[in-house]
Amino acid sequence: MADRRFRELRERLGEWFLRKQALQAARAQLPRPDEQAGRAFEQARLLREVTRQLAEPAEELPPGRRPAVLLSLYRDLVYWTLVAERKGQAEAAPDLTALWQQQPADRLLRAAGSPENLDALRGALVGLSPAAALDATDEDAARVREFADVLYRDLEVPRRRVDRILIRRWLHLAAAAAVLLAIVVGIRSIAMGPNLVAGGHFRTSSTWPDCAHDDGCAAQMFHTRQEDSPWVEFDLGGVKTIHRIDVRNRVDCCQDRAVPLIAEISSDRAHWREVGRRDTEFSNWTATFPASPARYVRLRVPKLTMFHLKNVAIR
Fold first, then answer.
1. DSSP per residue, 145-173
2. CB atoms < 10 A from the CB of 211, how many?
3. Which residues lie across from 311 on neighbouring strands?
4. Residue 251, pLDDT score
5. Rounded Cα distance, 142 and 189, in Å
6. CA distances from 141 to 45, 46, 74, 130, 283 (A)
């Protein structure tokens, strides 16, 4: 019983994340590319783009009756749209007149908007000769275009359903990844422990007086004068057990000023013990060491230099 419930839960979760059954059902409504309906859909999609470019040309076209050309293209678009709806039928598609007669009247009426408009559309699409089409107006072409667009949008419904399911799948997977990342970050934060100097209780060997007028300096945690062996010292407020010091160097320039960098700890500010050393330039550096009691943590650079860091965390 427990195994069956576990399998059911796993299947439900898998369906919620991957939407396999929903996607399979939606794709089953699409015409196969090798079928007549699939080829008709590709033709309808091509014609829709061609008519759009002709109706909204990017550059000047040669002289001629553009509404007549558009009506011809819209007639083909309507024809291939109706053929594309004949999914699963292998026999050759009839002409537009026969396809028009086979359509449910309410469907054509809904696409046309009114009986009068439907009669006008039938005349323009089925009964209009090429010579008579030369007298068509822009309004005639716009009416047929709107009708063709409604039919085509209906044809696109199954594909839009597939797209929505795929988007929902990726959203679910992204949400799951975000939750997993948050859990990992939370576990990592718990494992590392809190930052004991998040409040910024520290003192430095000196302070560069021009820092207030320098944007790069103001963005740093601290900035000393140029001096021999500058340092920064953090007071944890009491003896704490620590095991890690995370240091982020200045990122815009001058990273060489912070090396070599020595990390030291003390419980009385009189006796110091080195717990880490960095001799090469860095952006981020972590000194790890066995858990040790300490109240004070000092970072110093044993050379003549200015000393500045972006951030320090002690755990």
1. HHHHHHHHHHHHHHHHHHHHHHHHHHHHH
2. 16
3. 248
4. 87
5. 63
6. 18, 18, 8, 14, 65
Domains and CATH numbers, the chain: 2-171 (no CATH), 202-314 (2.60.120.260)
Reference 30, options 79, 83, 78, 87; nearest CA is: 87
Q: How far apart are CA 193 and CA 188, in angstroms?
A: 8
Q: Which amino acid is at 292?
A: S
Whole-model pTM: value is 0.51
Residue 24 has pLDDT above 70, yes or no: yes
DSSP letter assigned to residue 209: G
Dihedrals phi, psi of 270, to nearest 5 degrees:
-110, -35
Q: How far apart are CA 312 and CA 196, in angstroms?
A: 10
In tens, the pLDDT along 168-199 reads 888 878 888 888 888 887 776 666 678 888 76
Tell which wins on pLDDT, 23 or 236: 236
CA 198 to chain centre: 33
Neighbouring residues of 126: CB distance < 8 A, sequence distance ≥ 6: 96, 97, 100
Higher-confidence position of 259 and 36: 259
The count of C-alpha atoms lying within 13 angstroms of the C-alpha of 279, restricted to the half-sphere facing its C-beta, is 0
Looking at the chain, the whole-number percentage of residues with pLDDT higher than 90 is 30
Distance CA 154, CA 38 (A): 15
* Cα–Cα dist 182/187, whole Å: 8
Per-residue pLDDT at 20? 73
Residues 299, 274: Cα–Cα separation, whole Å: 10
